[in-house]
Amino acid sequence: MPNENNNGNNNNQGKKHGRNRRRFYKNNRPKREDKPREEKAALEEVELEKTVDLPEENAEETVNEEVFFEEQPEEAPQEVEGSCPKEPKKPYYEVVGVRFRDGGKMYYFEPNNIDCGEGAHVIVETARGLEYATVVMPKRTVSGSEVVLPLRKLVRIATDNDERRHEENLEKETEAYNMCLSKIEEHRLDMKLVEVEYAFDNSKLLFYFTSEGRVDFRDLVKDLASVFRTRIELRQIGIRDEAKLLGGLGICGRPFCCNSFLPDFVQVSIKMAKEQNLSLNSAKISGACGRLMCCLRYEYDTYLAESAITPKVDAIVETPDGEGVVVESMPLKGLVKVALDKDPTTFRPYHRDDLTVKGHAKGKHKTVGKNARDDAQKQKNGDDNKKKPEKNDKK
Predict the structure, then answer these.
(1) Calpha distance 77→362 (Å, rounded)
(2) Residues in a beta bridge with 142
(3) Could you tell me which of 3, 263, 294, 334 has the fewest CB atoms within 10 Å of its CB?
(4) What number is the average pLDDT over the span 6-29?
(5) 138 prior amide bond cis, ω within 30
(6) Does pLDDT of 156 surpass 50?
(7) CATH-assigned architecture of domain 166-237
């Protein structure tokens, strides 16, 4: 007799029955596409019956209406809301390259049917208004990938009045620089003034400064605005930008690259100095700005290409004189110094084309060099010992 209180079997049977029922309805469910297809077929049959019952005149009218409605989309292509005709991107643009300061970045402008040669002074339209610039690249055609749209226009070649105004602005910048220095000392602000720049139309006065932290210069701006009666803007720059603006001579004796011809700062890492076998002393590979010198980038790609085809240090190579270990590599010359197994005390130079790499022995060049130094020291000590008795005999 089953226990009345135990309903586990009944519950399992109910669950099983429910699963079977859901499975049955799932397998025998009518497809959604059956009904629309039947209705579509019935509608097509009704339309065929109607077209058969129509007289010939009505049939011609329907044909004419169909032809009329087929021509509509060609005449009205702008029916989509929010769409606007887009100009096809031009593959090439005619531009003129100008700079606003020596060693600054070159910007492209539309020539506007004005012929100007290299070195000519022009007035161009910028986001800040009209500006005085120098042409560094005459009219030329460049690809669309090099141009940032929209191109602003070249207004005119600088006239005598424009040249006179530019010189006056330079004199005003010197006065504004001295005035700003006195105001900074008055407000006791921890900031270093670098340069002052006047807009060509005197609508704005920019002050560039450096500082280790943030500076609250709101009172300084108010004082400067009351003195110069124009819009004042202060910009904090980094130490590399400071060196670019001020200029100077590097440890090579030439003007700073960033101030003379580099338009943008390049990324430089200590890895570039290692690849070129330079000293890792920061005082020797750092510029006046305190950062790694930009010239470390110039020959880096060449060193990588030459090093890839030159045997590395510690490489085991086969030379015309026998097998040895590379102890020094000179990629630009294509030469390496090899310590031969039969004579490890001397290092012989070989061209990389005369060598065959057979393997690699990590740290072996240090052992070879150490053994060579020890052997040389022993030989020197032996010579000294031989000479000492001779001196004693003479005495």
Answers:
(1) 73
(2) 93
(3) 3
(4) 62
(5) no
(6) yes
(7) 2-Layer Sandwich (3.30)
